[in-house]
Amino acid sequence: MRTKIYHTFHDEVITSRHQDWQLPATYAWRAPGRSWQRRVVRATAKVFSLLYRYSRPITIKNGWRLRTATGGFVVYGNHTQPTGDVLMPYYLGHHQSFNVLASPANLGIPVIGPLTLYGGALPTPQTLHQMRPFRSVVATKLAAGEWLMVYPEQHVWPYYTGVRPFNPGAFHFPIAAQVPAYCLTVTYRKRWWGRPRRVIYVDGPFTPDRRLTAKQQQRQLANQIHEQMLKRTATSNVTYVQYQKEG
């Protein structure tokens, strides 16, 4: 069993040399390249995601919820697989209308970084000036019937079996666009050999009380999804990576 030391739940336990990559101040969140190029990249990612999914011990519960969802929606997931979390949405939902909030550091990776934009990555803004155009693009995509994947814990903690605190701002999108929200929870089960089996649960849709203010709806939705994820992660029965708080 490996052990990882952390100070707070907001620590990045996996870093890269591109960690400090910055978005240009005037970065525009428009679709890159031509439509055929985006379709090719997404179709290729779909193939890789299926190869990944069927070459590993993965079980999916209620995956039909995303396959049958119509219109725009937002999916929230716990962030516990560096590669799996990138590929999972491609085989769980419609890959040509998929978007995901991603760290700008990903764009600093040579070749692969720019390709993620063709595959649906939306780098999160780094300044207040960038926030308005970013939110406008997300709202437009949701209104057009596309769907958005969000990891509200922000940083990936491999094989973590709990649920870390959420970034409350991540729950702005379904409230502003008035679209349903779902949650996707990866849990871990003991096997006789090798790494744990991943059991992935899809739950929802979740819709907050529209009589509340926008901020109250965000908090309510965040609590609903956090509680549901806690119920699902409680079914994990193996610890593959031990997380230990320093001090």
Q: Explain this structure to me?
A:
- This protein is α/β, with parallel strands linked by helices and 247 residues long.
- It has helices at 35-54, 64-67, 84-92, 112-118, 128-143, 172-177, 214-233, and strands at 2-6, 58-61, 73-77, 98-102, 121-123, 147-150, 181-189, 197-206, 241-245.
- It has a seven-stranded mixed sheet.
- Strand 4, helix 4 (112-118) and strand 5 (121-123) form a beta-alpha-beta unit.
- Helix 1 (35-54) packs across helix 3 (84-92).
- The longest helix has 20 residues, at 35-54.
- The radius of gyration is 18 Å and the shape is globular.
- The protein starts with a strand and ends with a strand.
- The model has no long low-confidence stretch (mean pLDDT 92).
- Indicate the CATH architecture: 3-Layer(aba) Sandwich
What's the SSE pattern? EHEHEHEHEHEHEEHE
Relative strand content: 15-25%
**Rg over alpha carbons:** 18 Å
In quaternary terms, these chains amount to single chain
Task: Please list the strands of the largest sheet in the order they lie side by side.
Answer: 2-8-7-3-6-4-5
- In the CATH hierarchy, the third-tier topology is known as Glycerol-3-phosphate (1)-acyltransferase
Query: What is the highest CATH level, the class?
Result: Alpha Beta
| N- to C-terminal distance | 21 Å
Count of the domains: 1
Judged by helices, strands and strand pairing, the structural class is alpha/beta
User: Helicity, in percent?
Assistant: 25-40%
Number of helices: 7
Main pleated-sheet profile: 7 strands, mixed
Mean pLDDT: 92
Please tally the β strands and state the result: 9
What spatial form do the alpha-carbon principal axes imply?
globular
Low-confidence stretches: none
